[in-house]
Amino acid sequence: MKRRNPWLAIYERLLARYGPQHWWPGETPFEVMVGAVLTQNTAWGNVEKAIANLKQAGALDCRAILERSDADLAELIRPAGYFNVKTRRLKALCGFLAARGVAEAPEALAGQGNLGQLRTALLAVHGIGEETADSILLYALGRPSFVVDAYTRRAYTRLGLLEGGEPYAEIKRRFEAGLARDVALYNEYHALIVRLGKEHCRPRPRCADCPLLALCPNAS
Ligand code: SF4
Question: Is residue 187 helix, strand or coil?
Fold first, then answer.
């Protein structure tokens, strides 16, 4: 009998237990891009406070961010932590969008190249690493680029599908090789892995109630 695709089998179990996660929690593609930068090394709740500050100040806009002084912008995004670093990163992202002529409609970036070209361009922006680039591609631009994070690495190592030390690109490659190239699937799957990592496959795993218990060789 043909062995079931483990990547899909895990997805189906996660979806059956947790249901749709309705990601990304942002109202516009630009808000998703900003959130992808602000969420680096911090919890999402802190990002929400920073985004609320930006909205209240009328600064959740590419041009507005570029026109703000660094000190003003840093103060607005303070709740997200590393606010001086993230100020530079946000300005770099907005400078990139402006240089591409899409400051007024950042989602139009999606029409400026194929997936590989857009990914390369994003990775060349100061402060945008692979996870941030893929989050922007998938959740802001609707391109099929699987997002990998620390939750993914931890859970899939325990699940026996990773050894644990693979570089980001190799983990991404394995997911994409195991799944249909589908934006909605990639969107939901990453969100479900985050839910798994927060709720069950935590640093101290809660295996007894985990939806993947029957599939996991390292369940305790
Ligand atoms: S059974 Fe335990 S180790 Fe395996 S994925 Fe679930 S929580 Fe993680």
Answer: helix
Quote the ligand 1 centre to 118 CA distance (angstroms): 35
Query: What is the C-alpha to C-alpha distance for residues 27 and 8, in angstroms, rounded to an integer?
Result: 29
Nearest to 134 by CA among 109, 144, 124: 144
The secondary structure of residue 141, as a DSSP letter, is: T
Token pair of 174, please?
A: 């394995």
Report the pLDDT value the prediction gives residue 2, as an integer from 0 to 100.
Answer: 58
Domain spanning 6-22+146-215: CATH 1.10.3210.10: no
**Ligand 1 contact, 14 CB (< 6 A):** no
Say yes or no: domain 29-140 is CATH 3.10.450.50.
no
Q: Is 210 in the pocket of ligand 1 (CB under 6 A)?
A: yes
Q: Is the CB of 106 under 6 A from ligand 1?
A: no
Phi and psi, residue 140, nearest 5° = -100, -35
Q: Please give the pLDDT value at position 3.
A: 67
Residue of the CA atom closest to atom 2 of ligand 1: 207
List the domain boundaries for the chain.
6-22+146-215, 29-140
User: Quick one: angle between helices 183-199 and 6-18, nearest 10?
Assistant: 70
Ligand 1 atom showing the smallest separation from residue 205 Cα: 7
Q: Which residues of the chain have pLDDT under 70?
A: 1-3
